[in-house]
## 1
Amino acid sequence: MYWEAVKECMNKEDLEQLQLEMLQSTLSRVYMNVPFYKRKFDDLGIDPDDFRSLDDLKKLPFTTKEDLRISYPYGMFAVPMREVVRVQASSGTTGMPTVVGYTKNDIKNWSNLVARVLTAGGVTQNDIVQIAFDYGLFTGAFGLHYGAERIGASVIPVSSGNTRQQVKLMQDFRTTALICTPTFALSIAETIAEMGINVNSFSLKYGLFGAEPWSEAVRQELQEKLKIVATDNYGLSEVMGPGVAGECIERNGLHINEDHFIVEVVDPETLESVPDGKTGELVITTLTKEAFPVIRFRTRDLTRIIPGPCSCGRTFARIGKVMGRTDDMIKVKGANVFPSQIEAVLCEIEGTAPHFQIVIDRKGAVDELTVLVEVSESIFFDQMKQQREFIDLIKIRLADELGVTVEVKLVDKKSLERFEGKTKRVIERRSL
Ligand code: DLL
């Protein structure tokens, strides 16, 4: 099922023509209205009116998160504030947040694109959608809320937190679609089990999860525990929020809304394009945004283009699950480690819960990484020997995946902090 079949299934030639036209008008707009881009284009001798082919995109300058931060709060807006009907901000944990704005038309497009993602994930007008993202400056809740209303679904704007209350509402209101971070969904599943409720008594059918990396193993776990079809959706405030890309129920990559965004995947060091199928940093150019257009925005997210068509019939290109951000990467003894790799390994080991934390410490000149792993209830060690063997097993599996040995410590069930929004996996002790 499609939300806008004509667009979502358009042929490549028409798409490229459309992208070129919209890019031309975006370039003129940012050149005229955003001093940052005028300066950049002038420095590089780029004439926005002399832009003839999509290949010319490569000549354009990148925009970084730092560029947006310097322009705090409204420096990158391309329209006067009287045309801005909404302001949101990035969840940036470090430094200044990035403030983004939307015109009336931007909100309309945003709702539409989120409606596409929801439809692709199975949601229809008949669904009761529980939005358990935090309502506020974060784009997640409002973005998905407007998209779900656009479809005509019944929206329950419960916001994040209060897990038991979420479970009760889910049961009483007969929620059919749950929308939140995968971490919070895991917490909800855990709470359902603790409350002794039979999951078959729920009406849940779909889970649309996003806003942070999550592995295939976590998808399996959520699908089994909540009895749902779980799809992944991706977006970022600087580009729009949710609605940039989303999986269809084939669950094999996220379709990018290419009539609104041009994506490139580049090598984060050389900034040259990498071939389809190869992992690199995702770079996004907006084509229709009025208040906050960005040109070649470096997302820092690592993913790849999945080559070939999808059996759902949508022609928009797909990206693979985002494995993490260039700045999530932890360097240990020369190897590059991503929290999502650790998550995938732990999910496959019987007896570990999908809750873990990574502590990075420095012993002398060497960085040391310790993974704190929660054990599930079913596993109980009365013998030190058994415990040692279990730790060794985890270490071996992690070493296989990561190519480097790391320390492992078992911790009690529920002793690690639970998150209602995005998880914080890494504890940095080196600077302390
Ligand atoms: O997280 C927008 C969003 C909300 C997307 C709800 C999907 C659902 P920010 O707070 O600006 O916006 O964070 C954006 O989160 O650059 C990625 O690093 C990460 N991220 C978002 N979606 C995914 C995903 C929202 N599906 C940053 N998989 C992005 C992996 C994701 N990482």
## 2
Amino acid sequence: MLVVDSVSKKYKKTLANDDVSFEVNDGEIAVLLGPNGAGKSTIIKSILGLLKYEGVIEIDNFDNRSIDAKKLLGYVPEVPALYDMLTVGEHMEFIRRAYKVEDNGRIDKLLERFELADKKKKLGKELSKGMQQKVSICCALLPDPKVIIFDEPMVGLDPHAIKELKSVFKELKEQGKTVLISTHMIDTVEDYWDVAYIMKNGKIMASKHNKPESGSEKTLEELFFEITEA
Ligand code: ADP
């Protein structure tokens, strides 16, 4: 479970997060929506413990900056950060050893799933942006994190990878994991989400649960445009 409680972050004069609070439960997929500059990256960096902020963030009741929390947390950044001189296989082996994951064939399964099995010997710098993104997803999934954050995960992926990633989201949910997906592209958000938080000007402006429409209720898209175009 992820708890963000009254988090504020200022960069000099810019209040990038203004008293942000939200929760994502086990077995839940949350989407964090908002236009560029809304404050999504700032809250993600705060959750990852990369920024100083005011407020409280907890991962399964552990302070997010503790080792216990970091062990539970996975992250797929918007821009993949691979090592130029490590191969795809070496990236996976590096993560496997760093997180003490058992050598049980999980690496090959992940690489096959994302059509990277034949790229195992390619260097990071030899991969296209989309392939780098896929390696980054495989690296994040390998330690089987309890709470996982995806920042703009669909950008640059081919249709097969998008399909696989959506089925990964579904599996993570079924396994009771906590999933947070941040995006500014409302049209990439389909029906896999359970709860959506819409951000603007550093604040959570609205939240919506994905349940059968109750007639007069606004769709997520309507709510998003109402808030972001206001
Ligand atoms: P989003 O990810 O939703 O596009 P950000 O969290 O990146 O939004 O940005 C929120 C606000 O904080 C914006 O006004 C942005 O210009 C500002 N900002 C982000 N990073 C920095 C930084 N390192 N220094 C100063 N201002 C920043």
